[in-house]
Specification:
There is one protein chain. Strands 1, 2, 6, 7, 8, 9, 10, 18, 21 and 22 form a ten-stranded antiparallel β-sheet that branches. This protein has helices spanning about 10-15, 40-45, 50-60, 105, 120-135, 155-165, 215-225, 230-245, 285-295, 305-315, 365-380; strands at about 20-25, 30-35, 35-40, 70-75, 85, 90-95, 110-115, 140-150, 170-175, 185-190, 190-195, 200-205, 205-210, 250-255, 260-265, 270, 275-280, 300, 325-330, 335-340, 345, 350-360. The N and C termini lie far apart (about 40 Å). It is of the alpha+beta class. Helices cover about 30% and strands about 30% of the residues. The chain has eleven helices and 22 strands. The longest helix is centred in the middle third of the chain and has 18 residues, at about 230-245. Bound molecules: ligand ISJ. Ligand ISJ binds next to β8, β13 and β22. Ligand ISJ binds near residues 207, 208, 298, 299 and 342. InterPro entries: ADC_synthase, Chorismate_C, IsoChor_synthase. It catalyses: chorismate = isochorismate. This is isochorismate synthase.
Length: about 375
């Protein structure tokens, strides 16, 4: 396998062409070209995420030294197909500062915009969910919505990617060509599902959110309000408790801060808890660990089965990759997986953007709808629309 020479990060994204893969995570940027081996749809049936990964490695017995790497995007529902492949060429670089590209002048304009559901209907969905929660059928459900944009010309994915990186350089940026060979999953997630290196595991759930404000004082107030909101602290606690419960069997030690901190993206404030553990068995893979906690209540709800049923019943579209996970793993199982949020599926001039919000008994429909609108801004800003 040829390995691309080491380049600076601006050149890495300059080398990106449609059909390539880019993983731009905080400590590691990867540009990959081609697919040496991939897992076809029919090979995935009835298999868990980690069984799919095992099969992928079996199909490619050669080793590639430190570039022995697979890239993947997994769905929310284990039953849906995943995109998993070992690239032909890989280039890795430690990230450093980039220049911002001018979005507006380079991207085509939106022709048609549609929401599924419309804001009014989304608020009705939230009301229904709140009623079910008050009826003690479940504690929390995350409800998403979809914004469909048709552009006047094909969208240049490289520019969108460069804009995402410029706006969110310390987040989990990605562009992965999907198995359907038509579309690309692209986005900038702030949420680490699992990082596993040797005997160490890290996860960093986010739940509880406020939009950022243009005025500095208002913005600070939002963060303060979030840090002491009973509703958001409860919503967050449900996530941390579930992750702790599911990760514990794998860990000798697990450090869980007593209180969340507040982190920011360009568009949002979030409650965040960084959890670190030492594994009993270094041989457990990043994907096994990820699937032990997926879907977390941050993106599905509590209890997971009831929450999944409800979101499936209320959302008028299939999420598929949205709120799944995206990332990379080496053959020895070390790897890093972000939750696929603040993302879109792009196919030529058609783009589907997704955003969701966690609903609990105290949720106010208008506020949850506003939260999804604020979350959509990550992608809209990279498209030069907001
Ligand atoms: C579902 C999304 O975000 C998730 C939901 C959050 C919340 O409800 O506060 C916060 C971060 C994410 O875990 C999304 O961005 O679409």
């Amino acid at each position: 396998m040829a390995t691309l020479q080491e380049k600076s990060i601006n050149e890495i994204t300059d080398l990106y062409n449609e059909g390539d893969s880019f993983i731009g995570f905080p400590m590691q940027h990867i540009l990959a070209k081609g697919k040496e081996v991939e897992l076809h749809r029919e090979e995935q049936e009835g298999k868990t995420f980690s069984e799919r990964v095992d099969l992928l490695w079996q199909k490619c017995p050669r080793t590639y030294g430190h570039h022995d790497l697979m890239i993947g995007a997994f769905p929310l529902n284990q039953k849906d197909e995943s995109t998993l492949f070992i690239p032909k060429e890989v280039m890795m670089e430690k990230p450093f500062t980039r220049t911002r590209y001018q979005a507006g002048s380079r991207l085509s304009l939106p022709n048609k915009v549609k929401f599924h559901p419309q804001p009014q209907e989304y608020m009705m969905m939230v009301e229904k969910a709140v009623a079910r929660i008050k009826n003690a059928e479940l504690k929390k459900v995350v409800l998403g919505r979809l914004m469909q944009i048709e552009f006047s010309k094909d969208v240049n994915i490289r520019y969108v990617l460069q804009n995402l990186l410029a706006d969110n350089e310390d987040k989990f940026n990605f562009a992965v060509p999907l198995l359907d060979e038509k579309s690309t999953l692209i986005g900038s997630s702030p949420e680490l599902l699992i990082k596993k290196v040797g005997g160490k595991v890290i996860t960093n759930p986010l739940a509880g959110s406020r939009p950022r404000m243009a005025n500095e004082e208002d913005d600070k107030k939002m963060a303060e309000e979030l840090s002491c909101s009973e509703k958001d602290l409860y919503e967050h606690r449900l996530v941390v408790e579930a992750i702790e419960r599911n990760l514990k069997p794998y860990c000798k030690t697990l450090t869980v801060p007593a209180q969340p901190s507040v982190i920011s993206t360009k568009t949002m404030w979030h409650l965040s808890t960084r959890i670190e553990g030492e594994l009993y068995d270094e041989g457990v893979s990043s994907v096994q660990l990820a699937e032990s906690i997926h879907p977390t209540p941050a993106i599905c709800g509590t209890p997971a089965v009831e929450a999944y049923q409800l979101l499936n019943e209320l959302e008028p579209y299939n999420r598929h990759y949205f709120t799944g996970m995206v990332g990379y793993s080496t053959r020895n199982g070390d790897g890093e997986w972000a939750i696929s949020i603040r993302c879109a599926e792009l196919s030529q001039r058609q783009m589907k953007l997704f955003a969701g919000a966690g609903i609990v008994a105290q949720s106010v429909p208008q506020e949850e709808c506003d939260e999804t609108a604020a979350k959509l801004k990550t992608m809209l800003s990279a498209l030069g629309i907001e």
